[in-house]
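Why does residue order matter? Because the sequence determines the fold. Keep that principle in mind as you read this record.
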Amino acid sequence: MTGPINAFACWFWDFDNDGRLDLWVNPNNATLSEVVRDQLGQPSSGERPRLYRNVGPPRFFRDTTAEVGLDRVVLPMGSNFGDVDNDGFLDMYLATGRPSYSYLMPNVLLRNEGGRRFADVTAATGTGHLQKGHGVAFADWDRDGDADIFLEAGGAAPGDRAHNVLFQNPGSGNRWLTVKLVGTRTNRAGLGARIRVEGEAADGSVASIYRTITAGSSFGGNPLTCTVGLGRAVRIRELQVVWPTSRTRQAFRDVPLDRSIEITEARDGYRVLDAPPIHAADPTSPATRP
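Structure:
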């Protein structure tokens, strides 16, 4: 692990859903011309980001940047990650540029395609805002089960009066579960707790989605409640929580889909926080309210 040398924001996340935390590191050493040359397919000496996949012991981390399509010159400032389409795989939004007016370049939304590759969906989603981003948050502000994107923009240079931007997510139709943790022996917000959700598809196949409770990026902030995208799941077979301080392991069967729940460390059961949204799936789904 030797780069990027001039790094800015970074974070640990499980981008490929294998239960191990991977590492993303943003670079902060490129000129506008180097970014443009790279976009045009011309040679560019601008520093590139690094995605280090956690492959487990003894090697632990391997540079997988090129094979997942992220070997490109970018210049992120505020940046963060979240699952914008609720398919269970974490995407990322890079607010690019520097405070100077000369660094006008569109922000970038990168969609995670099943933990195999990242696709640039900036134009398709209308998220390529030109203003500088000094903080990014993925949050379900309208409580409809999908992650919206908030961009704190401008303000670093004299006269820069750019307004903040909220990108409302139109939804994908995929299923979800929002989990709020309340620690008793562990910190109250449950920071560091590990969540695993087993979602069952209509054909009976089961996929596990892994999440760790964090605040997101080092140059942005996400809510401490965790919304887990479950794709086309028709049932949650099991939800498991492991608390870092007490080492308590809690498991819940047949948790309802498309709901927000609260789990308290070492306490039996959970509490449903929200009624089903009006666009909830067919009530004949196997998921039932406890």
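The two ends are 47 Å apart (CA to CA).
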